[in-house]
Amino acid sequence: MTLQRVGAFASLGCAATYLFGFVFLLTVLAPLGFGGSQVDARAVVDFAVAQSGLLILWNSVIYIANALVLALLVVALADHLKPTTPGWAAVTRAIGIMWSTLVLGAGMIANVGVERAAQLGASDPEAAVRLWQVLHAVELGLGGGNEIAGAVWIGAVSLAANTGRSLGKIAVFLGLVTGLGGIATLIPSIGDAAGAVFGLGAIAWFIAVGISMLLRDKPAAP
């Protein structure tokens, strides 16, 4: 299997982790307030005490699994861009590795927060709430609450692909829109809406990139 094909499947895998996260967020975790600015920390701690496994599953998919397949995609896309835009390829590799590292770190901290809150929640709920809030703030700072690193990487890949005509026009357009949405998460008044644009746009972009790479993965001449 070629690196480009591995990257294509990794891109589709990234889309799958995002889709899983959105569905889980809107169903199982809906009462906790995740995805908005008003997370009910006490409800999160109570949920962690009762069903910590579900929170750990969610964090592990949206952060840890996503980071691992994202790293594969970063390397594959850099290799894909290199023949036509070698300088941009190096830039995207550096930014992409930074993003995947931040996502992995956010997932590890998120899971530690759940584990510690679950252990402390039964005996001292107030202390558990304070502890979870602190660790959750660190998680958000690494990437769960802003999308700057991801926005810059997706935007850079899309600009490079447009210059070198190495991905389809749909993927390039979706990447630019998604990148702008991610950068807009810096603005507090529209942060939640911009985050939704980034998340939904990223799903479409990952799918478009995966399909484009599969279509362009031509077998080597004998």
TrEMBL record:
Alphabetized UniProt keyword annotations: Membrane, Transmembrane, Transmembrane helix
Residues annotated as signal peptide: none
Membrane-crossing segments per the record: 12-34, 54-78, 90-114, 134-160, 167-187, 193-215
Domain of life: Bacteria
Designated name of the protein: DUF4386 domain-containing protein
